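Hey,
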Amino acid sequence: MPRPLWTGAISFGLVTIPIKVVSATENHSISFHQYHREDMGRIRTRKVCELDGKVLSQDEIGKGYEVAKDRTVPVTDEELDRMPLPTAKAIEIVAFVEADSIDPVRISDSYYLAVDGQVAAKPYALLRKALERSDKVAVAKFAWHNRERLGLLRVRDDAIVLHSMRWPDEIRSPESLAPRETELDEDEIERAVQLTDSMALDDISGFRDRYREALEELLTAKSEGKVLPAAAGEEEEEPGKVMDLMAALNASVKAAKETRGEDATVHEMTPGRPRTRKKAPAKKTASKKTTATAKKQPAKKTAAKTAAKKRTA
């Protein structure tokens, strides 16, 4: 078992469950050190006092809060530990909610809760069964790293998982980031839905960190003096290039089907053409009247000539 990060108890009504908090994830990222390019000497970060220029050890460094310019209030670990916080050594369950009601944006790091001693086995199993049968998740409060946090408890396989969550006022509103209303063609929406169906998966456990794998190959080749692996020859799309949305959707559906080994035949869909407006019936009637009037004009001229002849006689 990994080294426990925190020990305490789950407070479940009047039930107390001693637990150990263990990280549920591992960081496989490759980290680098900083070196002097000329002689490959290691570059290290030192903590230096800005007043006397002295390099300090961790034992000489304390916490402080700047209340005003040039005025800092020191705070010790002992003072923080004495704060009257009920969740200092307990994960206190305060509510049970539907899992769908939790915004994923609020979820942060994940931890496994392991039983701390045989006495915790029965109440631990009781809470796990209650969560499973109710199809709910537990919202809890706990204190860690000198602050009270909000957490989410749920069941994963046979273990209870604690997800640390952000408080509601820590989530920024996306209102200013949302695009303005845009007119979409029904064919475009239908093709986008087909793309989601073509890319649907029941399990995502097969995804790998290809960048880390390529980085490991690079480091291995350099350490063994071998030829560096060739760069992938992918074409980069020009920034700011106008995209034909329907063409991109058609190509994406075809590529997704080819990747899954399905029939790659794609019936091309083009945006619907705007409908041609018919002339209003009123305009046709007006046109007929104008024609009829034009035809009657010669008759008026003939009548005028006949009247003139009579006057001369």
